Amino acid sequence: MIRLQKMIAESGFCSRRKAEEYIKKGLVLVNGNVVTLLGTKVSEKDEITVDNQLINSKEEKEYFLLYKPSQVISSVKDDKMRQTVVDLIKTNKRIYPIGRLDYDTSGLLLLTNDGDLAEKLSHPSSEVEKIYRVKIKGILTPKEIKEIKRGIKISNRKVKVTYFKIVKINYQKETTSLLIGIVEGRNHIIKRLFKSLNHEVIKLKREAYAFLTLQGLRVGEYRKLTIKEVRKLYALGK
User: Fold this and answer.
1) Within this chain, do residues 230 and 159 fall inside the same structural domain, yes or no?
2) CB of 98 within 8 A of CB of 111?
3) Residue 148's domain is classified under what CATH number?
4) Active site residue 78
């Protein structure tokens, strides 16, 4: 017997936190009965329905690393009928992205049907480092670089920068290309960071996620993670 929200997460339907929201809203049925009590215990023999969808607790877990193109939505579906990251991967499993990349941002994105891993890696306490290649308008001053490295406050919270390197300065076009590493996932955080210094982000690409990189992949391509890589990711989640 295990907790209902854990059973839902292990099915790959959603994360454990999201499962708790479904339960609270009365959208979860166990053997045809609505269950709203968190912590309710169930077994594999119980029939569980979430938002009118029957889940399978024994669904095999899958883990993908995608080189997301820009102009693709980091979601399972889109009400505007735009292409999503799930559309790019051939699988019959109900996978979904871990975190997100903006519509106009490219780079490394993980997708899975493992709710526990998704929740572990998405939790702020995991502090997973993500490296981004950024191109901005303007040329950073030594003072601005110091501010970035020290940690600029965005919405009253410092952005912890773990890595910073200027790659190229184009004085003619007045642009700067750089690499920056952060350990958080607030919406548009890289764009907001440079906007606070009056620099517009022209191009943004996630190059690395923890120990994972885009090596060997072209834009739009993906690969399955190895068992060793999955274990290392689990070790990152706290």
Assistant:
1) no
2) yes
3) 3.30.70.1560
4) no
Full-prediction pTM beyond 0.85? no
* Residues 117, 134 within the same domain: no
Instruction: Determine the angle formed by the axes of helices 115-122 and 227-236, rounding to 10 degrees.
Output: 50
Distance CA 158, CA 178 (A): 20
Examine the domain organization and report whether 6 and 67 are in the same domain: no
Same domain, 135 and 203: yes
Cβ-based neighbour number of residue 122 at 10 Å? 16
- Is 97:68 a contact under the CB 8 Å cutoff? no
The residue annotated as part of the active site, out of 87, 102, 104, 114, is: 102
- Whether the CB-CB separation of 183 and 127 falls below 8 Å is answered with yes
Q: Of 10, 35, 54, at which residue does a domain stop?
A: 54
Number of domains in the chain: 3
Q: Do residue 223 and residue 118 come from a single domain?
A: yes
pLDDT per position as a tens digit, 172-228? 999 999 999 999 888 899 999 999 999 999 999 999 999 999 999 999 999 999 999
Which DSSP string do the residues of 183-227 spell out, in sequence order? Answer: S---TTHHHHHHHTTT--EEEEEEEEETTEE-TT--TT-EEEPPH
Containing structural domain, residue 30? 2-54
Residue whose tokens read 């773990």: 162
Q: What is the pLDDT of residues 117-147, one digit of tens each?
A: 988 898 878 889 999 999 999 999 999 999 9
Q: Which residues pair with 65 in a beta bridge?
A: 110, 223
